[in-house]
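Repro:
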Amino acid sequence: MKFVVFISILFFVSCKINRTNKGIAVGKWKYVSGTTSERLVITGKYDRKGREKGVWKYYRNDTLFRSEKYFYPYSADVLFHKNGKVSEIGKSFTSQNKWTKTGTWYYFNEHEKLTDSITFEN
């Protein structure tokens, strides 16, 4: 019985969001901003050094418009049209809170037909 109680407490304590450690964002985070007509929600995780890790998702009015998978200092990025179809796919580089496109980015129309590709060199 004590084991079940311990596991339950551990589960609830570990599920906290928007935590900081010595002023650095760590663990799961959820940012919410805007008004009822234009609401922005961002969800993701930070590592113990305050760097983004894993998958981050960006929603505008409950519709996914961006997804990022972090491999610090790089991320694989997918942006979406309002209809939910892919609009851009590429890789970015993050340094000192600055986000820069790198490598080849692919651009699609609202029917997910490839329309362009651009290679960024840094």
